[in-house]
Task: structure prediction
Amino acid sequence: MADPDAVQWIGIVSALVLLVTLLRQIRVQWTSRDVAGVSGWLFAGQMCASAGFLCYSWLIGDTVFIFINVMGLTTALLGQGIYWYKRRQLQGGDAWRSRRGGRPRSPPGAAWQPRRLRRARWGVGQGSGLG
Result:
């Protein structure tokens, strides 16, 4: 039979690799400008799986895996929150409205355009009441 300590270490290392991978995905998602290629179901599934593993770890009394699964559930909640935030930010016509006064801003990547082109594009100064 295998050494119980070695078996425990295999589980711990595997769980840490998964946790680091999930944290990396969350970092990439946070720095990305959109939610393309990310499914909200990914984090919903991760939350369900982490909650189930957390219950299992609790029932068998494995403190290390209770901690790892709490961290997994936390990353799933964080990832889902970022997904919803980014998706909401990108929806609708007011996705680029600033929080002060509701004036439209140029979307990312539009800063290189000449000022008059930006003004014409967003209707500033053309009787739209925006400028």
User: Anything to note?
Assistant: The longest helix spans residues 4-31. Helices lie at 4-31, 40-60, 63-90, 115-121.
